[in-house]
Amino acid sequence: MNPAVIRTVFRTVAIAEAVSWGLLLVAMFFKWVLDAEPLGLTEGGVPVAGPIHGGIFVLYVLSTLVSARAFRWDAKTLVLGLAASIPPFFTVWFETWADRQGLLAPAARREAPTSL
C-alpha cells in the first residue's frame, strides 16, 4: 500500500479519535454533571457519542497496527502508539511526535528517532 495514503489515514484517524473523545466527554458532562438533554438527546448524548468514539477508537488501533507494519516501527513505538489511544487527546500528541521523528515516512528515508 502507498505510504502516503497510510500516513494520511493514520493522521486523520488520530485527529478524529481525539475529537470523538472530546464529544464523549462533553456528552458525559451533560449527563452526569448538568443532568441535561441537549438537543433532545437522551442521557446527555452519551448513547450517540459513545458508539461513535468506540468505532473511531477501533479504527485508530487498526491504523496504528497498519502504520507500525508499513513504517517498520519498533515494539516501543507501537506500544506507545496503542497506549496513546487511552488518555483523551493523546492520539494527536503521538501523531505529531511520530511525524516529527520521521516515523510516518518509509523506513528507507528516515533517520533514527530521537528520544521522547
Description of the molecule:
Helix content is 65%, strand content 0%. It has 116 residues and is mainly α. It has one domain. Helix 2 runs antiparallel to helix 3. The longest helix is centred in the N-terminal third of the chain and has 30 residues. The chain is elongated. The two termini are 28 Å apart.
What's the SSE blueprint?
Layout: H1 3-32, H2 46-70, H3 75-83, H4 90-100
Pfam families: DUF3817 (PF12823)
Subcellular location: Cell membrane
Organism: Aeromicrobium endophyticum
Strand-residue fraction? under 5%
Count of β-strands: 0
> What's the story with the biggest beta sheet?
none
H/E series: HHHH
Helical content (DSSP H or I, runs of 4+): 55-70%
Count of all domains: 1
| Spans where pLDDT lies below 50 across 5 or more residues | none
Shape: elongated
Instruction: Give the number of helices.
Output: 4
Distance between the termini: 28 Å
Gyration radius, to the nearest Å? 16 Å
Mean pLDDT: 88
Structural class: mainly alpha
Subcellular location: Cell membrane
Pfam families: DUF3817 (PF12823)
Domain DUF3817: 8-100
Main location: membrane
